[in-house]
Amino acid sequence: MTTLHLADWLASGGVASVEGLYLKAGGAKLERFLNHRSESEGKAFVWRAFQVAAGRAGASGFWLRAPTGTGKTEALLRWAGDANRVIYLLPTQATVNAMWRRLRHIYGDDAVGLAHGRASYMLRKSAFEETLDDRSENVRLLSRVFARPVTVATLDQWLLAHLHGRHWEERRFLSREAAVILDEIHAYEPYMLGLLWAALERERPRRIALASATLPEALMERFQEIVSLDRIVEAEPPLWNRRRHRVELRPGSLVERMDEIVEFARAGQAVLVVANTVEEAQRLYRALKEEVRWPKLHLYHGRFIFRDRERREQTVAHPVPGTIFVATQVVEVSLDISYDVLMTDLAPVDALVQRMGRVNRSGNRAPAPVVIYEDGSAIARGRVYDEEVLALSRSILKNLPPEPTDRDWLDANEEVYRAYLRSHAWQDAFREGRENLEWVQTALGTFTIDLSDEEMLQRFVTRRGSLSVDVIPLRFVDEALRLIEQGDRWRMVEFQVPVRIQWLHAYREAFEHYASLDTLVTQLPYDDELGLLSRSLADEWGIGASSGPLILS
């Protein structure tokens, strides 16, 4: 039945041959791309030793650990080589989108698929998809079930195959013989890791690679019993001995020490500022805008509508001297950027390592200043980060040399990650994920849960405390309705912003279901520069609700 479904989709999509489902000469295409890129930079391409070792790791798979900016992705693709199919899994939609664009340059537009919650929108928007006619939905479906030669996806899309969501048979059938790459494995919450563990225990792909710049030994030990990978490939010692950052721990908070941020910017440095919460980032941005009136200022967090987030991602990718970029922890795994200076709230060491990976990324300059403010973490305790882990991280930071090597950070991260794994909260969440997936597969057998991917993710893949829901701020309702009248309902995603599901209860009067849009609309204020404001912050600043009456239809 699975083969018949695929044949039907191929025929409906106008695909003449099953040859289009397989990757051809992937290794040669990668080599050709890398040589061409190096030639355009006026140099010859040479593989690093760990990349060569990855290529020789064997078809079954391997573990890979290499610092950011050293060619980890190229090593993983070299290992995948001439596999018939490659599935590249990453933690966030932003990282998936960036990798999708990158791999299309290597393997060609036709060969690379995209799978995540907003993939349909991204594919329609791309120039490639715009050339398609009414067959385009079938082509998008091939991406969703991993039928393209190369598919870049969020991990949750792969897990849907093991939770018996729609098309689970096709997804699992096409994954079974693919080269599956799990990159940034350190970035997942324990509940998601529990789901992944149970899925791999029940059906491990024949070829699998697990990778991270800070791959913790403790995590490898937890997964080794089910993936049984004998080979660990690690970047060569000189790459770990790089000193990319000069670290200083200071009292105070980002808002209190705003003058120090501006001082670096006035010296012509591009400054990345990372706050632990959206509210703190909004406060700091507003203060820099209104009190300092700094002109080269940008803000990025998860409470912008999708259209504004996309625009901001492009704007901050190439900073000019004197730029101040205020962000939240979403920057840790979402953006491929390199700034001159990092100023950040105290956070767990693993999070700090990811933030520092966005400063002096290639390590080809003198150690970049990193200033960590101890007091800013107070507002995040109990909400964002565990207090014991923050205390351990502070202690580790105080004992590090002023200019730590990447190996120093790796060792520090290992100590913190082992503390995570020992905690009852981590153990409970991991066990819950394992048990949920095992229960679904045992209870359903060969049956399918007939829910949309979005409903499946909310019910089974996202832990209850982490649930969010997409809403549209009231000020964009008229634009959204015009899109529907024009037959462009698919573009409604441009106006959506995620909010924690707890907000629906805390600010109940600010949310209403708008039938014409078939979505929730919020009267909470939305500002083009600040994003969506919480009720408490809007009240504090005397900002009223979103303008315009909320008309239900």
UniProtKB/TrEMBL annotation:
<dbReference type="InterPro" id="IPR050079">
    <property type="entry name" value="DEAD_box_RNA_helicase"/>
</dbReference>
<dbReference type="GO" id="GO:0051607">
    <property type="term" value="P:defense response to virus"/>
</dbReference>
<dbReference type="InterPro" id="IPR027417">
    <property type="entry name" value="P-loop_NTPase"/>
</dbReference>
<dbReference type="GO" id="GO:0005829">
    <property type="term" value="C:cytosol"/>
</dbReference>
<dbReference type="InterPro" id="IPR006474">
    <property type="entry name" value="Helicase_Cas3_CRISPR-ass_core"/>
</dbReference>
<feature type="domain" description="Helicase ATP-binding">
    <location>
        <begin position="53"/>
        <end position="233"/>
    </location>
</feature>
<keyword id="KW-0547">Nucleotide-binding</keyword>
<dbReference type="GO" id="GO:0016787">
    <property type="term" value="F:hydrolase activity"/>
</dbReference>
<dbReference type="GO" id="GO:0003676">
    <property type="term" value="F:nucleic acid binding"/>
</dbReference>
<dbReference type="Pfam" id="PF00270">
    <property type="entry name" value="DEAD"/>
</dbReference>
<keyword id="KW-0378">Hydrolase</keyword>
<dbReference type="GO" id="GO:0005524">
    <property type="term" value="F:ATP binding"/>
</dbReference>
<dbReference type="InterPro" id="IPR001650">
    <property type="entry name" value="Helicase_C-like"/>
</dbReference>
<keyword id="KW-0347">Helicase</keyword>
<keyword id="KW-0067">ATP-binding</keyword>
<comment type="similarity">
    <text>Belongs to the DEAD box helicase family.</text>
</comment>
<dbReference type="Pfam" id="PF22590">
    <property type="entry name" value="Cas3-like_C_2"/>
</dbReference>
<dbReference type="InterPro" id="IPR054712">
    <property type="entry name" value="Cas3-like_dom"/>
</dbReference>
<feature type="domain" description="Helicase C-terminal">
    <location>
        <begin position="257"/>
        <end position="408"/>
    </location>
</feature>
<dbReference type="InterPro" id="IPR011545">
    <property type="entry name" value="DEAD/DEAH_box_helicase_dom"/>
</dbReference>
<dbReference type="GO" id="GO:0003724">
    <property type="term" value="F:RNA helicase activity"/>
</dbReference>
<dbReference type="InterPro" id="IPR014001">
    <property type="entry name" value="Helicase_ATP-bd"/>
</dbReference>
<keyword id="KW-0051">Antiviral defense</keyword>
<protein>
    <recommendedName>
        <fullName>CRISPR-associated helicase Cas3</fullName>
    </recommendedName>
</protein>
